[in-house]
Request: fold
Amino acid sequence: MFSITSFDNAHLFYEQAHHLWKAAETRNNLILGLSLRLTSNLHAYGEAMPLMALVKDENGEIGASALMTPPFALIVQSEPLNKLALEALADALIADGLRLPSVNGVDEASDCFAEIWQEKTGQQARRIVNTRAYELRQVLPIDYPAGRMKIAEESDAQIAADMHNAMIEEVILGPRRLATEESEMENIRLKRTFFWVDGGEVVSITIATRPQIKSICVGGVYTPPRYRRKGYARALVAEVSKELLARGYELTNLFTDLSNPTSNKIYQEIGYQPVCDYHQYEFN
Reply:
């Protein structure tokens, strides 16, 4: 028998759940990093109230955890996989009248929940994104293209916004939140936005995001089409990973789209090791 504990206080949610995630930060980097961010700003990802829930058995043991920042996907975590706990979570969400847009998580948990939700609601679950989580502890030597890494400054905020919006338009499926000069400023002030600059032109961008306990995620890697196949993204991620390790993080992690063999190849050349796969499903 399972019960659902819902939270409107991100600190309490994190305090009760983070022991589930901290031993495998890369595997759990999405729910861990997001929940940590919410402890400092409950509305960091939008005005809607986040959904934060734990599924506990009669002994108080947690069988599943869930986090959603509407309108984005529900993230589910259940290790070892506990189908009964995920069924109890689905039942509670249905009883609350929640209509889920999508679910994301480590493949076995996400696959299981998507199947449960489809059976219980009649909504069709369609897998829309397959990603792989990688981690790195040491950067391997590579050949570098022309140019250098630059840590973005406040005067670069519009360039960062323009590049991220180009990436969003090109690759993001599901709900989108377009970047603005203002929205880019926080990350820039934290010195977590990075460019590769060649000949005075910004040719690639990435950011450091979702700090965890000992690690941080490298994301938002984008090179405009006219600058591709020159090695800029690989060089930028390598230098950013070095920079983040030098700042004291024990490891860095990132996600790649499994439909893009190039990104999976170049990050392994830098030293990133595969950890697990994530599956995102859309419900219709």
